[in-house]
Amino acid sequence: VNDGDLRWTAERYVLGDLSDADAERFESLLADSQAAREAVAEAVSLCEMTAAAVRTPARRPIPAAWLGASAACLLVVAAVVFAPRNTELADATPKKAIETSVNDEWILALPELLEIQTAMHQADGEEEAGLLESVVGVVDESDDLPEWLITVTGSKEGSP
Amino acid sequence: VAAGGESSELAAVFTAIGPQLRRFVIGVTKDAHAAEDAMQAAFAKAMEARPTGGTEALKAWFFKVAFHEALAARRKTERSKKALGDLRWLQRAPVEFGLEERDEMQRVQREIDRLPAEQKFVLRERFVAGKTFAKIAEEQQLPIGTVLTRMRLAMERLKSRLKD
Q1: Distance in Å, alpha carbon of B7 to nearest chain A alpha carbon
Q2: Which of A33-42, A125-134, B126-135, B143-152 has the least mean pLDDT?
Q3: Closest CA to B74 of A36, A27, A83, A90
Q4: What is this model's ipTM?
Q5: A113 and chain B: CB distance < 8 Å anywhere?
Q6: Are A53 and B109 inside 8 Å of each other by CB?
Q7: Most buried among A127, B11, B19, B67, by the most CB within 10 A?
Q8: What burial class does residue B83 get, using C-beta atoms within 10 Å of its C-beta: 0-12 exposed, 13-18 middle, 19+ buried?
Q9: Are the C-beta atoms of A50 and B155 separated by less than 8 Å?
């Protein structure tokens, strides 16, 4: 009996597929042949493995599309988990800005300062206007010929 | 093999060959409990007879004695010849397999996927549906030799994959 035939006979013996006569003949061989006994042990191992494997679907590699979908799901979950923190940050930003402006109080007082400055300008303007007016008044008055000059001129022009 | 072996040496050989011996015995009894009984009886006989010799001689001695014990245990369980074709005794759940065996099983699964459809069909019909080759041949209206050849080719391919 060659190795291949011995293994196949051992497998059929293990699976109970030998005829009664063939099974008895094989068991006579088992009584004397260690190779036949080891072939039975090997057949049991293979049949157990095959029986389990054939009943359990093989694990297939995960398609790339599924990996992409899983990654997208993870991103969504991450966004949901971290969203409250972002809101806090978003809320915190104007609060911080307000705090900063409160510290810089001069900015809040700016309109008041501008008002004061404008008033000062107005006062200065009036003062300057007064001075100018006095100067201009002199000038204006100079525009009008003084009476003594008119008299002199008139007399000169009016003289024969 | 002469009598007079040290019990510790016998125990060491028995432990080393235990898994292979158990598979052989269960192949004869087709019953896990009967196989355990036969294993225990074989070890008890070894303690009594104290065989000596090299590892290979002791291994052959254990297998021979266990074979006779397995036949006796099978007779006790009164399994009929027809019931021997029932493969429920083979069906260990995948969780019962060790880590190495699971790796082997996955290799076998991948190889089964690559088998020609007609060979895969015979495997499923025999191992899952529990049909005999004669029944498969009858249902598929094929000569039994064709069904047996498909099974043999499938098993040879799976075996070669396991050896790789």
Answers
A1: 23
A2: A125-134
A3: A27
A4: 0.86
A5: no
A6: yes
A7: B67
A8: middle
A9: yes
